[in-house]
Specification:
The protein is of the alpha/beta class and 281 residues long. The chain has eleven helices and seven strands. The protein has a seven-stranded parallel β-sheet. α2 (26-38) links the parallel β1 and β2 (43-47). The chain starts with a helix and ends in a 19-residue tail after the last helix. Residues 1-7 and 275-281 have low confidence and may be disordered.
Length: 281
């Protein structure tokens, strides 16, 4: 991603606003701040909250869980109209079907419409959520361009307002980052040596150790080995063991031998890694 592309990418996140209308529970406001920050957004707007000092409420701060910067910077306004002033596309999140009013979209369509809008225009997208008890009023929905639904269980579609906001923030993030190949966390270029494939000498040493271990616990009879060892050798070779896997199996061999010795079983000598014990005749 070029510097110009990265700037535009980050700018899209800065142009998404989450609006909570008349929130009454401080904990939900704090949880909303956490949900927003977790998904890379930063704009939270509170319309006529029940507690005008909710940003300083201990429960809100506790449930923000490190997202106190988003909580502290939340804008508080008296009306939804004021919250929507810089917005060019608004979605009213509601669980109830509406026969009159804006067209409906599900939460994934909402994210896709938001992404396209942010690419094509310079304005701001808003997700509007209602009160914990009754949701959004018709007068609030009429100020939005779309009604947004989360396809939850129709027999029990009751989502906490902070949970609904988290789902909306996640879908928006997914839509915005899908084109940039950043869906899976990476290790910042740090290789894990344990995931490297084991070299043949390590695999052969494992096989010698393995043969000693299974003979110790009487699983292998060296006088009648049949095809047990070759089959196990084929199994390990086919698997293409990693360094960590070889070390783990060597640890298992050591434990088996120690257990056999503690039980009074004779422990055979280890075979040479290049010459399996069952082949020494």
């Amino acid at each position: 991603m070029t510097q110009t592309q990265a700037s535009a990418f980050n700018d899209n996140f800065d142009r998404v606003r989450f609006i909570m209308v008349q929130p009454s529970h401080p904990g939900n406001v704090g949880a909303a701040a956490r949900a927003i920050k977790t998904m890379g957004f930063g704009q939270l707007c509170l319309v006529d909250p029940q507690d005008p000092h909710v940003q300083h409420d201990p429960q809100a701060i506790a449930l923000a869980s490190g997202a106190t910067d988003v909580l502290a910077s939340a804008r508080i306004v008296p009306t939804l109209a004021q919250a929507l002033e810089p917005v060019t596309l608004a979605f009213a999140l509601t669980a109830r079907p509406r026969y009159l009013g804006p067209p409906a979209a599900d939460i994934r369509q909402t994210a896709e419409l938001s992404r396209d809008h942010l690419r094509q225009h310079t304005g701001t997208v808003a997700i509007v959520l209602g009160t914990e008890r009754v949701g959004l009023a018709n007068e609030h929905i009429d100020q939005c361009q779309y009604v947004c639904h989360i396809p939850a269980n129709p027999e029990y579609s009751s989502l906490n307002v902070a949970q609904a906001l988290q789902l909306a923030a996640w879908e928006l993030r997914y839509a915005l980052i899908a084109d940039h190949g950043e869906l899976i966390p990476h290790t910042e270029g740090k290789a894990d040596p344990g995931k490297e494939l084991a070299t043949q000498d390590k695999v052969q040493a494992l096989m010698a150790h393995w043969e000693q271990a299974i003979e110790s616990v009487k699983f292998l009879d060296p006088r009648h080995p049949k095809k047990l060892v070759p089959r196990m050798r084929h199994l390990f070779t086919r698997k293409q063991l990693t360094v960590d896997e070889v070390d783990m199996l060597r640890g298992l061999c050591t434990a088996m031998i120690k257990t056999a010795h503690a039980a009074g079983f004779p422990v055979p000598e280890a075979a040479s890694p290049s010459t399996p014990q069952s082949m020494q005749e």
